[in-house]
């Protein structure tokens, strides 16, 4: 009996013992191709010498000192590096230990900003129905993944939700992409007017939706309009790049491709590439200055924030991404992967949509390709695919997400940035074989 409280209480898991490049091995010596980076975490693959050496060096110097008493060289250097990479006035970084914590910090920063600015009535968040922002109660409150929210609904705080940007399901026949983008983005304006602009603090969204949609980019012009609306009504724009940031979509921040700059951006997962747990909330200078020149104290903290070893791992990760030109590689391999998936999986009767940016790719499963009817919500397709794929030596990330509030099934692919073209072929062929086998269970 395992004394670890596993999330899936009854599913025995293989024991991982080592990793190399894009492969992991279990205690029976079985190899698994990491087709999803865990949950879009392992962007440099496994056993990366440079990152390990940076952690070892920090361990030798000083592994931990509480951030209330000391700063550290690694956290200072990492914040400086992020400030160089982030556009505009996104110049201040608050370090935490993961994605949910980064989102919590962002939400509370938004609130404290308006309190410091003398607008304490601003207290409402708006988010989207197709979203996931983390499992802590604040992050879960703004998130829109109904399946994850359901048991906790009575203890969540109030948040307001608008439609996602989901062209595959929502764009009407004859409606241009731009017209569609404006229609859904304008829902934000309608919601702000309904609540009263004086009451709304912030809008939070993932530039490319992850854990509820496989991977779902916005349509052209959507985020530009969102930015305009936020500016008009003095509403902060928080972009959650916990999953899609740190190069995953082919640019360091996914929002760079939208040609906008948020007021706050959250990152985690790929920031430490899985070598250390770390998240970060990067904020615009105006927000920092409002707090710094107001009470001078952000009313929020965690024991492990700014952990020197986590910061050292993140710094080495970022330096590797930049110096090894991995962003170029992500863009190239992403295009190759999309095209291979379209050729191989596209014809399958239950593959409705294949989409994504860079090496952040979603596959939407449907019961009927023409009507786009989702698989029945009771379908355990995601569990079946995961089990079969693992048997076949492939890690992919099938999920029971939501399709605008209802159940939907998607598979996320997010392999390490170092994946080679022949390894993409192996990934696609293993996934194809796994889908053929697993679909027998729901067809
Ligand atoms: N935001 C987004 C966009 C995420 O995808 C996730 C995790 N899937 C989180 C927040 C929460 O991150 P964590 O699991 O590290 O708390």
Spell out the blueprint of helices and strands.
Layout: E1 16-20, E2 23-26, E3 31-34, H1 37-40, H2 49-61, H3 73-85, E4 90-96, H4 99-116, E5 124-128, H5 137-142, H6 146-149, E6 160-162, H7 167-170, H8 177-195, E7 200-205, E8 208-209, E9 216-217, H9 222-232, E10 236-240, E11 264-267, E12 279-284, H10 285-292, H11 308-323, H12 326-344, E13 351-357, E14 360-365, H13 381-391, E15 394-395, E16 397-403, E17 406-413, H14 421-439
Parallel strand pairs: 3-15, 5-6, 5-7, 7-10, 10-11
Antiparallel strand pairs: 1-2, 2-3, 4-12, 8-9, 11-12, 13-14, 14-17, 16-17
4'-deoxy-4'-aminopyridoxal-5'-phosphate binds at residues 39, 98-100, 103, 132-134, 206, 210-211, 240, 242-243, 268.
Summarize the amount of helix as a percent range: 25-40%
What would you give as the CATH superfamily of the largest domain? Answer: Type I PLP-dependent aspartate aminotransferase-like (Major domain)
User: What distance separates the N and C termini?
Assistant: 35 Å
What is the rounded Rg?
21 Å
Structural class: alpha/beta
CATH C-level class of the largest domain is Alpha Beta
Shape: globular
Numbering strands along the chain, what is their spatial order in the largest sheet?
Answer: 4-12-11-10-7-5-6
User: Uncertain segments of ≥5 residues (pLDDT<50)?
Assistant: none
Instruction: Quote the beta fraction.
Output: 15-25%
**Strands, total number:** 17
The hetero compounds bound to this protein are: 4'-deoxy-4'-aminopyridoxal-5'-phosphate
The biggest sheet amounts to: 7 strands, mixed
Count the domains.
Answer: 2
Mean pLDDT: 95
CATH 2nd-level architecture of the largest domain: 3-Layer(aba) Sandwich
CATH topology of the largest domain: Aspartate Aminotransferase, domain 2
- Total number of helices: 14
